[in-house]
Amino acid sequence: MKGSGLWLTLGLVSAWYAANIGVLLLNKYLLSNYGFKYPIFLTMCHMTACTLLSYVAIVWMKLVPLQTVRSRLQFTKIATLSLVFCASVVSGNISLRYLPVSFTQAVGATTPFFTAVFAYIMTVKREAWLTYMTLIPVVTGVVIASEDLAFTAQPICTRNARHFLHLHSKGEPSFHLFGFIMCLGATAARALKTVLQGILLSSEGEKLNSMNLLLYMAPVAALFLLPATLLMEKNVVAITIALARDDIKIIWYLLFNSTLAYFVNLTNFLVTKHTSALTLQVLGNAKGAVAVVVSILIFKNPVSVTGMLGYILTVIGVVLYSEAKKRSK
Prior knowledge:
The chain has about 325 residues and is an all-alpha fold. The protein has a domain at about 5-130 and about 175-275. The protein has helices at about 5-35, 40-60, 70-95, 100-110, 110-125, 130-160, 160-170, 175-200, 210-230, 235-245, 250-275, 275-300, 305-329. Helix 3 (about 70-95) crosses helix 9 and helix 4 packs antiparallel against helix 12. The longest helix is centred in the N-terminal third of the chain and has 31 residues, at about 5-35. The chain starts with a helix and ends with a helix. It is a multi-pass membrane protein. It comes from Thlaspi arvense. Its main location: membrane. InterPro entries: EmrE-like, Sugar_P_trans_dom, TPT_transporter. Keywords: Membrane, Transmembrane, Transmembrane helix, Transport.
């Protein structure tokens, strides 16, 4: 890789990092610190933006050739993926209301563990024993981080309830069981989507590149989320309009956040195209570490040495898992 090619790749990687970390932190700010407690509506905004911007990128700008849906069965498969995708994004956004970004990143790093489990259950595909061994530090790291977070939360709660509320209205929340369950659910759903995508769209006639897949998944996802929003987050549009009258910045936050959500997918595709899927996985591990550091600097959430060691152990496990998978091929 020489000259302009190197700079292009570095630029794309930087843009991918910025988009990923930006949408994560802005989600956290809106759902937790700003107080916009509507994760399903926020996800629907993301999917609507992905629908519109995917159409512009593929149909108008022709960044990639348009691939068509060839059958009703293929559309059913795409709709299934959309439903799982919705579950992962909504659950992830809900978890950000209750947990620090650093902890959600640690749990998210266990995606390879869930992927291996789902792949074995659904395809009876066995990995080499060394690959399974590398998953031990992945899970152990999250257990250490979660236990440390729960332990540090306990003294605050028992000491003084009023102090607890005062502290957490300004800073990061500590361990929250419901948030943890949602975070685990989001991670499992992401892994399930990866396995299902490999199964459902594996034939040559049904393969779609990631940008075309997003073009068809996003509007279906938005349609799935619309009734959920109306039932579970009643009057959210009226509430958002009322918020905008007091603070117009909420509209700009939502627009910018939704646009970033699309650029996460766009830069993901471009980085994969100019590097490789394995390189993307390795870069993703480093991205998680960067996101943790940035979130700590911005949200000032307390992180103990034990919790950080747990996260580092998880990242090391994921790196070893990637290397083991590479050698087994």
